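ok new one. same drill as before - C-alpha cells go in, u give me an amino acid for every spot. 618 of them this time. try not to just spam alanines like last time pls lmao
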C-alpha cells in the first residue's frame, strides 16, 4: 500500500473517531443535561395544573359553605319561600361565587332547586339535566358538554343549621374553564370526559419524536367514581429543541473546521511531501533509461533533498561495484568456459541449463543438442538416482560430500566424474534457481585404480587369485561355513617337472606350462569354485559345498581326465602332470586355516611320491 493511501486511511479513521466521539459526548453528557432541565419544567407545569384545580375546587366548596350558613337558605329549605330564590340566587350571586350552577335538595335527595347561569348571564333550569342525585353527596349533571360536572355540597356535618336539606355549588369543566385550569401555562390544552377506565393513569407524562411533551392529569368525580375527567397539556420541547439546535450547530462547526484543517493538512503534505516524493520516485525510475551518469535530480533544501544526496552517494557506490562485478563476471565467464574442470548448471527438474567447454568435450554433444535436456541422457543408469539425490540436497543447501558417478558420452564411452559440493545460482532470464555442478574427470585415475586393484587381487601371469586374495577369500568362507555347519574342500596342487622344463627348454616354456595347467584346472572346476596361485608351481583349489569322499573323488577324476585330454591333443614339448592333495573342513570344524592348508599339502606330497614311484616303475 502506498504512503498516500495509508495517510488517507489514517485521516479517515481519525475523522470517524472524532465524529463518534462527538456523537457519544452529545448523547451521554450534553443531551441528558437538557433532558434534566426539561424534566424540571414539565414537573413544574404538572404542579401548576394540580394547584389550579385545587384552587377551583376549594372555591366551589367555600361558595357552598357561604350559602349554607345563611339564614335565608335555612328558611327556604324549611318553608320553600320563593322570595329567597329571587333575592339570593340571581346572576350577581353566581358571578360573586364564581360558580356555574347551584342546587338544593331535601334530606332525601329530591331536587328542590337547581339553576345554571350561562355565559350570557341567564339563569336556566338545570333539573332536567340532572342524571342522578345523591342524598349525602350531591348531583351529577350531563348536558352533552365536554367535561364532567363536579360539585361540592354542604351537609349536616359541615353546616349545623342545615337539618332538612343539602345545598351545593358546581362548575362545568368545559372550554369556559380551560383558562382557570391551564392559566400561566403555554401549550395546547384539552379537557375530556370519560367513564372510569382502570387503564388510565392518575399522572402520565409522554415525549414523542415530534418534539412535543404531553401531560395528562386524571381526576375522579367525588360524587360517583364512574366518571373521570382528563386534563391534557401538550407543548413543544423548547429547551431540548433549542439545546439540540445549538449542539448541532456546534458539532457542524467543529466538523467543518476539522475537515477544513484535514484538507489543509493534506494539501500541505501533498505540496511539501508527496509531490516531491513522486518527483524523487520518477527521477529514480528514469535511471533505468539513462545510459549515462546515475544521478537523482531534485531541487530544494530539506530532508527530502538530504535523502536525494544519500541516494546519489549510494548510486555512485553501486555503479562502482557494478563495474567491478561486470569485470569479474567477464573473468569468471572465461574461467568457467576454459576451465579444465567440468561445470554444469542444472535446474530443479534435472534439466541442463548451461555447461562449459570441458563438459561439451566430455559429453560429445554440442550445446544446442543437450541444453534443456534431462541430465539422465548422459548419466549411467545405475548412477542416475545418486546424481538426483545429489542435486536435491544441493537445492536444500545440504550437500557436503563429493560423489563419484559414471557418464556415458554421445558415442557410448563410459567416463568417471568426481563431483564436488555445489552452490545455488539465480537465473537472470526467468528468475529460476539452478545448481552449479562442478566435476573433475577421473577416468584415467579410476582405470589406474582398477588396474592396481586387479594387480593386488589377481596373479598377473595366470589371471587367477593371488596368494593374499585367495587366503582372504578362504578365511571368510571358513567363517561362514563354520557358522552354517557346511563343508569346504580344498585341493593343494603342485605342477610336476616345472624345473626340468625350465632347464631343458627355458623359462618361457616353463611359464607356458603354468598357464596350460591353469587352463586345465579352470575346465575342471565349477563356476562357484576358485583357483589361487600360492606361488611358483603351487596352486590351491577352493570347493565350497563339496560333500563327502564321492565329491572329492569326482573332482580328482575330472582334473586327471582333463590333463589326459590335454596331453593327448596338445603338441607341446612337455607333458603336463600335477600332484594333488585334498582336505575337507568337515573332518575338523575347529581347525585353523594354516592347519587346513597343511593337511592338503601333506596329502599333495603323498600323491607326488606315489606319482614318482609309479613313474620309476614304468
Amino acid at each position: 500500500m502506498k504512503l498516500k493511501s495509508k495517510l488517507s486511511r489514517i485521516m479517515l479513521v481519525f475523522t470517524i473517531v472524532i465524529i463518534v466521539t462527538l456523537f457519544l459526548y452529545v448523547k451521554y453528557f450534553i443531551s441528558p443535561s437538557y433532558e434534566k432541565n426539561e424534566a424540571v419544567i414539565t414537573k413544574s407545569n404538572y404542579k401548576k395544573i394540580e394547584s389550579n384545580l385545587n384552587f377551583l375546587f376549594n372555591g366551589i366548596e367555600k361558595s357552598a359553605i357561604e350559602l349554607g350558613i345563611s339564614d335565608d337558605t335555612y328558611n327556604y329549605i324549611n318553608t320553600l319561600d320563593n322570595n329567597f330564590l329571587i333575592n339570593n340566587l340571581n346572576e350577581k350571586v353566581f358571578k360573586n361565587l364564581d360558580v356555574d350552577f347551584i342546587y338544593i335538595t331535601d334530606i332525601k335527595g329530591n331536587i328542590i332547586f337547581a339553576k345554571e347561569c350561562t355565559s350570557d348571564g341567564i339563569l336556566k333550569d338545570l333539573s332536567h339535566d340532572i342524571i342522578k342525585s345523591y342524598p349525602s353527596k350531591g348531583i351529577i349533571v350531563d348536558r352533552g358538554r365536554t367535561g364532567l360536572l363536579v360539585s361540592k355540597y354542604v351537609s349536616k356535618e359541615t353546616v349545623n343549621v342545615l337539618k332538612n336539606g343539602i345545598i351545593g355549588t358546581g362548575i362545568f369543566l368545559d372550554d369556559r374553564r380551560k383558562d382557570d385550569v391551564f392559566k400561566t401555562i403555554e401549550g395546547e390544552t384539552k379537557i375530556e370526559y370519560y367513564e372510569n377506565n382502570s387503564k388510565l393513569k392518575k399522572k402520565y407524562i409522554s415525549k414523542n419524536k415530534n418534539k412535543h411533551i404531553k401531560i395528562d392529569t386524571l381526576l375522579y368525580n367525588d360524587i360517583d367514581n364512574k366518571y373521570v375527567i382528563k386534563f391534557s397539556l401538550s407543548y413543544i420541547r423548547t429547551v431540548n429543541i433549542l439545546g439540540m439546535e445549538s449542539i448541532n450547530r456546534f458539532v457542524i462547526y467543529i466538523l467543518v473546521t476539522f475537515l477544513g484543517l484535514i484538507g489543509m493538512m493534506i494539501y500541505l503534505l501533498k505540496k511539501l511531501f508527496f509531490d516531491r516524493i513522486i518527483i524523487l520516485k520518477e527521477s529514480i525510475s528514469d535511471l533505468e533509461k539513462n545510459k549515462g551518469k546515475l544521478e537523482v535530480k531534485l531541487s530544494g533544501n530539506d530532508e527530502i533533498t538530504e535523502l536525494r544526496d544519500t541516494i546519489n552517494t549510494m548510486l555512485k557506490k553501486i555503479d562502482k561495484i557494478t563495474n567491478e562485478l561486470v569485470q569479474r563476471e567477464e573473468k569468471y565467464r572465461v574461467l568457467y568456459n576454459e576451465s579444465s574442470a567440468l561445470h554444469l548448471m542444472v535446474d530443479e527438474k534435472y534439466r541442463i541449463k548451461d555447461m562449459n567447454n570441458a563438459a561439451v568435450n566430455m559429453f560429445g554433444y554440442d550445446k544446442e543438442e543437450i541444453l534443456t535436456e534431462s541430465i539422465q541422457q548422459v548419466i549411467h543408469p545405475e548412477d542416475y538416482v545418486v546424481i538426483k539425490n545429489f542435486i536435491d540436497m544441493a537445492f536444500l543447501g545440504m550437500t557436503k560430500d563429493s560423489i563419484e558417478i559414471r557418464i556415458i558420452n554421445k558415442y557410448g564411452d563410459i567416463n568417471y566424474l568426481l563431483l564436488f559440493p555445489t552452490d545455488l545460482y539465480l537465473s537472470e532470464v526467468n528468475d529460476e534457481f539452478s545448481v552449479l555442478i562442478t566435476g573433475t574427470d577421473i577416468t584415467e585415475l579410476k582405470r589406474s585404480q582398477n588396474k592396481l586393484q586387479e594387480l593386488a587381487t589377481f596373479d598377473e601371469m595366470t589371471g587367477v587369485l593371488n596368494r593374499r586374495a585367495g587366503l582372504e577369500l578362504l578365511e571368510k568362507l571358513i567363517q561362514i561355513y563354520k557358522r552354517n555347519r557346511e563343508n569346504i574342500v580344498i585341493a593343494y596342487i603342485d605342477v610336476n617337472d616345472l624345473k626340468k622344463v625350465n632347464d631343458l627348454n627355458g623359462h618361457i616354456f616353463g611359464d607356458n606350462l603354468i598357464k596350460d595347467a591353469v587352463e586345465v584346472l579352470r575346465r575342471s572346476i565349477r563356476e562357484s569354485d576358485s583357483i589361487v596361485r600360492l606361488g611358483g608351481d603351487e596352486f590351491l583349489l577352493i570347493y565350497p559345498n563339496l560333500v563327502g569322499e564321492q565329491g572329492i573323488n569326482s573332482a580328482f577324476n575330472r582334473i586327471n581326465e582333463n590333463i589326459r585330454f590335454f596331453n593327448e591333443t596338445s603338441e607341446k614339448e612337455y607333458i603336463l602332470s600335477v600332484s594333488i592333495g585334498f582336505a575337507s573342513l568337515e573332518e575338523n570344524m575347529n581347525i585353523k586355516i594354516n592347519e587346513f592348508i597343511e593337511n592338503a599339502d601333506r596329502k599333495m606330497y603323498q600323491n607326488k611320491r606315489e606319482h614318482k614311484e609309479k613313474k620309476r616303475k614304468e
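The first strand starts at residue 101 and ends at 106. and btw The mean pLDDT is 77.
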